Amino acid sequence: MNVNSIATDKRQLSRLGYALLLILALALPFLGFMDRSKMSVAVLAGIYVILGLSLNIIVGYAGLFQLGHAAFYGLGAYTTAILSINYGVPVLLSIPIAALIAGIAAIIISKPILHLRGDYLCIVTIAFGEIFRIAAVNNIFGITGGSNGLFGTARPEFLLPWIEPIPLITLIAILIVYAITVRKSPLNVQLLGGAAIALAYYLPPLITGQEPLFVLSIVMGLLGLLVASMTHNFSYREAGALWGIAVVFALIMLIGGGNLAGAIDQGVRDTFKVGDPIEGPMGMTFVPVAFKRDPIPYYYLVLIFIIITLVGMLRLQDSRLGRAWLYVREDELAAEATGIDTTRVKLAAFAIGSAWAGVAGTLYASRFTVVSPDSFDFLQSVIIFCIVVLGGSGSIPGILVGTLGMVVLPELLRDVAPTFLIEGIGPFAILALILAFYIHSRRQHLTKAALEAGAIALAFIAPTLLTAQPSLYLAGIVAALVGVWIASELNRRDINPIPWLWGGAVIYIALLTLAGQGLAQSLSDGIHNFRITDWRDGLMGAAMVLMMILRPAGLIPERRRGIVFSAVAEVGEGESVSTPQLA
Amino acid sequence: MEKFLQQLINGLTIGGFYALVALGYTMVYGVLKLINFAHGDMFMWGTLVGWALLAALVAPLAGMDLVAILITSVVVMGVIGAVGVTIERVAYRPLRKAGRLSPVISALGAAFVLEALARNATEARVKVYPQNLLENLPSIPLIGGVSLSGLQLLMLITCVLLMVGLYAFVQRTRIGTAMRAVSLDHDVSRLMGINVDQIITLVFFIGPALGGIGGVLVGLYYRSFDFTLGWIFGLKAFIAAILGGIGNIPGAVLGGFVLGIVETMATAYGGAGASAWKDAIAYILLIIILIARPTGILGETVAEKV
Q1: Which CATH number is associated with domain B2-292?
Q2: pLDDT at A485
Q3: Residues of A with Cβ-Cβ distance to B113 under 8 angstroms
Q4: pLDDT tens across B278-289, in order?
Q5: CA distances from A541 to A45, A537, B112, B268 (A)
């Protein structure tokens, strides 16, 4: 097995992951548990994904500090809002202007600073973020609306050209994508598989004359591609399977196609609020689309931008510039020695990342129609920074996970009171005990470990049993964890922990029986009054510290790619040259 | 002229606070090359602990304001110093060898934790220092109508004493020498028999302790505070440290006074809208100094180690 085929294998796998994710994302609004407010969260999360991806260029690829990203995001949002409110520029048309302004601002700010130490860049970006916020609050040039911000940004409205042979274009697109996906297999097999997909998915709508069925056909086409790309040795057998699926699909369409077509047509109209087609010049048909408060159209708009961003980033990563970023990040001096203009390369990262944040700002302004300084303060910068760094800087799945943790989770947990800390604590307790036993049984005798765990358990459970106050479990968990820690510290210093633990347990029980009632009451009050919004920043901070200690490269670290010289991969008698790694 | 002198005095007082906090930043940066983002929030915790203690001490020590303040200051120094040492142990020490990015993120995280704790401890309200404290101090008339209030004089004296004390400690004592050695090179210091970890712990005690005192003084001077005080004030103090030349103790003091005076003057003479832009002055000053003289006023040009 040579190096190249391993690399292909991995790529196929992640491609499968991305395809599944895309299908899930496309279907998300139609899942049963998604209501309107959850869709709003999804739109917001999508904007943060774009922000995270844009910051990833600066922090992940080029390895620069940027703690003022929200300012560039805000610049984009304000640009769009001002253009829309004062000059009536359609929102989507203001995207290039927003990007340009954010990018130029980034160049102006960073150019004099980039050659300095990284720490200075960090503090300057914070300073710029603050200057931006103060300027917006003070209604600079009379255009930012002061601390209340600007109201009434227009929502996107546009005419979607409806070209009649749209299915044909889709078909061609599918074929192209297909050829790219399994291009390693022989040409005739490719053609056979492609023809299966093409015929099966083009035939039913053609025969029944029901245009809306094309939507379903596209989905089926994508599924077919997925099946094809899962096998990295695409052969006659897989092509035959595709034909089988295609025939079954065609038969189903022929029988029940009419009803299905009606339902799909209605669904699309309801979701996107499309009006009746308008006849335009040159015999073209247009469908007017006007966004309202409904989050679903925004969701798809943001999704399109995420896909554009992703594709752009992946292309950028492999480009000459992308590789230069990598070298600068790993070793600036060596990069300079190989002839890379490091300042220029870093400036490019800064400008591109910030410009793209401006695009995200446009999406924000058009979604919420209100922009105010509070939405772009330092906390936002830190949240975006955390999405990248905690998720795994340089890693795209990491950014998705980071967004889930930093944006989606807090939004969903907003109204959840953690009473489960009182009610459902029993299982946690048992888990902690098992953990304690497991940790210590590896180092010493089983009986000793059991005695140890027993002491911890007693300290843990006895107060609650004695006083019948369930909230004391919380104190118990803390006590148990302290017990585990003390035991492991004593063990490390060759001191027998058991007498200490039992002594500690007895003292703990005595104290709690004396003061248990009051403590239980205040604990219980504290838990009932606990609101996640009050502690959100604190939890975020704790997560930052913990992550840096436990997993400094992030939750899903970037997969460092080896540079494969395929031309010289085979040497002599099948002996492969060790590939140089970017470690 | 009178207005100018009065503003100069105000600027000097505020500059003294900046300088006290900047010392903590500059010392930590000196030994660890780390921006201790949590320092500003430790300073704010100094204000918070000072407020709680003074509120408790005012009644039993009625009429002995100075004694109450002295006790408060000593306790605050101990408490905030201990907080600093704890944060170093928990959040920075495990990351000593982890490159540049990780400790900075960890520091930011620690700052957020401290701020959230303060937010919930004060229920996100503005807290007011005890009234009538030190109101009988005589104010000293200078030329014309300008006067130096007793409170300002007390604060200036405290700041200057602390700074001179710190400078003497760092320059004259064996431990101070060890500190300077550690800030030059950890490994060689270790070879010279210096316990580097102990020195770092000490730095993380002294810096926050000074910041804590600064917090109490700020509380006494402005009379009220809330939990957001630490971030802005800390950021400005860090800018003061850069202004004077980061890692340089006299530089931090100079930077603090320069920032305080520039800020006060710009607000006083900047016209009608200037006070709204007060916070931006420090940031603009930072950008100017980094473009014009990145090593700061007193910093010497050192080629970055390769």
Answers
A1: 1.10.3470
A2: 73
A3: 538, 541-542, 545
A4: 888 888 888 888
A5: 20, 6, 5, 38
